[in-house]
Amino acid sequence: MAVETAGSISLPRTKTRSELMTQRLAAARWFLLPMLVALAIVAGWPLLRSIWFSFTDAKLNTLYSAEWIGFGNYLRWQTLSSGAIRWRGVLADPDWWNAVWNTLRFAFISVSLEAVLGMIVALVLNAEFRGRGIVRAAILIPWAIPTIVSAKMWSWMLNDQLGIINDLLMKLGLISQKIAWTASTDTAMTAVLIVDVWKTTPFMALLILAGLQMIPKDVYEAARVDGVHPVKVFFRVTLPLVRPALMVAIIFRLLDAMRIFALIYGLTPNPKATKTMSVLSQENLFQFDNFAEGSTQSTLLFVIIAVLTALYIWLGRVNFDAEGK
Amino acid sequence: MAHIQLKNIRKSFGMVDVIKGVDLEVHSGEFMVFVGPSGCGKSTLLRLLAGLEDITSGEMTFDGQLVNALAPSKRGIAMVFQSYALYPHMTVYENMAFGMQLAKSSKEAIRERVERAAEMLQITPYLNRLPKQLSGGQRQRVAIGRAIVRDPKVFLFDEPLSNLDAALRVATRLEIAKLHHQMTGSTMIYVTHDQVEAMTLADRICVLRDGLIEQVGTPLELYDNPQSMFVAGFIGSPKMNFLNGQIAEGFGANTIGIRSEHIEVSDREGSWKGKVVHSENLGSDTYVYVDIGAGEPVIVRQEGKSMHQPDEPISIAPIPDKIHRFDKAGKPLRH
Amino acid sequence: MNAWAITKRASFYLLVLVIVVFAVFPFYYAILTSFKSGSDLFRITYWPESISLQNYINVLGVGSFPRNFLNSVFVASITVLLALFLAVTASFALARVRFRGRGLLLMTILGVSMFPQIAVLAGLFELIRFIGIYNTPWALIFSYTIFTLPFTVWVLTTFMRDLPIEIEEAAIVDGANPWIIITRVFLPLMWPALVTTGLLAFIGAWNEFLFALTFTISNDTRTVPVAIALLSGGTQHEIPWGSIMAASVIVTVPLVVLVLIFQRKIVSGLTAGGVKG
């Protein structure tokens, strides 16, 4: 992630600054101002407010008269008359930890699958063959379809009675009974994973493809002249060279996967097995009127992602420093 | 017309000093060439003159007016870039008219100046074309035309011929020389690493090395009286022959220099005996490489065609008053 | 060609076939379903047998779907135009003027695009209600800026960096100030990048679900993704699959067409933002 520009006019460390520099710096300030103000209003302030709400007892109707209760929403305890201590708060809520577990499970499995499958698709697209254009167009289709629409389309295909997937599997003799993909706890997560892989592998494939295309062709030709086995070429040559692009794609996707909402909402509205942090938070905020609790959950999610993002940026900078950029 | 004065100009990029103290005067209407090896700072100096970079310290005046803080468009300069820098989406006419349009000149004034410049450079037929429809040489002429339209006091050229092929380079060099004769009021500053361009175009040459001026003078002054071994070796092609050791001591110097055109094949008094290593026949001249046991082969220029076989014994004699003597520091010794 | 080479070839093309079928089938099947009506829906078929437009008539004629479609178009377009306008100037500053803290600022903008939308939902909700734009398209245009703006800034900055420095310097010598440089020199050269970025941002805005679900509550202010999610039949348990598929097709076909037309540009735009960035 190089942020040094090869071709920009530099700022001197002198006391006398020419008109030109003054003019450019002033222009830069005016150009950045609207964007920064917009971001502050649309992102900065709401974020701070949301975090603030998590420290209050706000309800949808009492947003402005909410009172500060510190970390109470996060973790608090009550001593019962029997002397036992009962923990309350999001951090003690099994539903929350279930959601965290679902989110992590989903994120790691989906990103792993998408990385591997994306790599395969990228390798295919990197090869030169007739019809390559068709393949590229074909994989853009899942990406272009809105998430919620994909959820509905697959809902239909995975429908236990009328779904074509069950029909196909039964015809092929792979299952003996129709599976309730989206309703049953065992298979709900699998269903979500299938749809997410379908939808997101193209994006991963394209990012990896860009990395693959930066590898000079003569490296492969040299390997071929040396008679190296293709599989070995992949692991010893291709993979190391495509690693930066792959890492960027993976971490990007990981962060994205942690935030998932629409797919779960549209595909599996209820089962405990797929409720992720975003879904839980939204429910609490707007469906169950546990506004403060929902804010707490969203803030926790934010913290997790902020930490991961900082890691991503740090890794990116370190990565590129090492590559000598 | 502008008299330019540079007083103790320094330029640093962060911790790196690129220009380390340059004092220079460019006379009004003069064609001054900055020449030197890569990294000597010649392009940087040009950009300082243009105002595209800030001066770290020192004073720069045009006609007595301090211009350090002035924006490029206020200095009365025009610049011709190495890569032409034409606006790709504008026609030739629009490229040349852009500056005047920004200055809110009238349509008639613009038309008059653009057409006159196009006439001068013979690019009138291309006025309605886009840069991508032109050849390299034509694009360069448009770039020069754009500079002319600005009616500047100072023309700045940043290695304008480097992107052209050899034949085109010679032709465009001629155009630039003609331009200088036609526009006798404009000071022109030209940057190149090619000493042939320097010798042929310049009224005066400024040789730069490592951020400092080595010597300033007319081409012939630099040729006849180089003030250092560096300048002696830089100007003139092929490079001046340098000999040290016994031969040099015989002349009372640490090193002597003699140009290949000042050595003759002869065995008269004071000649050096050696063997032919290689000979290059160019049709008009022959360059003979002779090993006289003093390190690098000495290059001797002979007019016309002459046949020398490798390993042939040969005697060569320098013309006595063309020998340059240098001390240990590379400075010339006076007779 | 020996047997091994033929097998390799064949399995490669088989892989290609699998990929293409897997990618396209759900879409194909949705189209297929949308042309079925009534009891036909209860029969599972793999190939088209009869075409019926009943579902489309249902979706387009009754209810607020056409209105929702227009809402989506309106919201996505305005969001993108707004973001592009703010981003063009910002990206010039970020790409071409060196100033202290520039790297940090770029990182911050990248960071904002990583926000989980849920984290700002509560605060945005309060703000939107306060401004009085709740349940209007403006609520969505307002909130969508949180992801369209950083994205367009990031991608446009990458494109701006690639413009040659000499053209800018020639313009400076000609007397152009930064605004002129942007509008008369850079913008004409960048419009393919603007189209690509705009298209990608449009798709993102069109697609958005969480904010649309939260900030609009009446049928005629909703956008298409929410409308589809909430399509319900006459009774609690009757899911109008036919209508849902028809609605899906209506929503998706324009997008797919756009994406196929601008394929190359989209691919380069995605990778510019992803790999180079």
Explain what the structure shows:
The complex is a heterotrimer of chains A (325), B (335) and C (277). With 325 residues, chain A is mainly α. Helices cover 66% and strands 2% of the residues of chain A. Chain A has a domain at 93-288: MetI-like fold (Orthogonal Bundle). In chain B, the strands form four sheets. In chain B, strands 6-7-8-3-9-10 form a six-stranded mixed β-sheet, with helices on both faces. A five-stranded antiparallel β-sheet of chain B has the order 13-17-14-15-16, with no helix packed on it. The longest helix of chain B is centred in the middle third of the chain and has 17 residues, at 166-182. Chain B is globular, with a radius of gyration of 24 Å. Chain C is mainly α and 277 residues long. Chain C is globular. The model of chain C has no long low-confidence stretch (mean pLDDT 84). The interface between A and C is large, with 108 and 101 residues.
CATH architecture of the domain at 93-288 in chain A: Orthogonal Bundle
Give the tally of β-strands of chain C. 0
Poorly predicted runs of chain C are none
How would a textbook summarize the main sheet of chain C?
none
Distance between the termini of chain C: 44 Å
In the predicted model, the low-confidence regions of chain A spanning at least 5 consecutive residues are 1-7, 11-15, 320-325
CATH architecture of the largest domain in chain C: Orthogonal Bundle
Based on CA inertia axes, which overall geometry of chain A fits? globular
Q: In what order do the strands lie side by side in the largest sheet of chain A? A: 1-2
Estimate percent helicity of chain C.
over 70%
How much is the average pLDDT of chain C?
Answer: 84
User: What is the string of helix and strand elements of chain A?
Assistant: HEEHHHHHHHHHH
CATH superfamily of the largest domain in chain C: MetI-like
Query: Per the principal axes of the C-alpha atoms, what is the gross shape of chain C?
Result: globular
* Fourth CATH level, the homologous superfamily of the domain at 93-288 in chain A: MetI-like
Broad structural category of chain C: mainly alpha
Mean pLDDT of chain A: 80
What is the C-level CATH assignment of the largest domain in chain C? Mainly Alpha
- In the CATH hierarchy, the third-tier topology of the largest domain in chain C is known as MetI-like fold
- The helix content of chain A is 55-70%
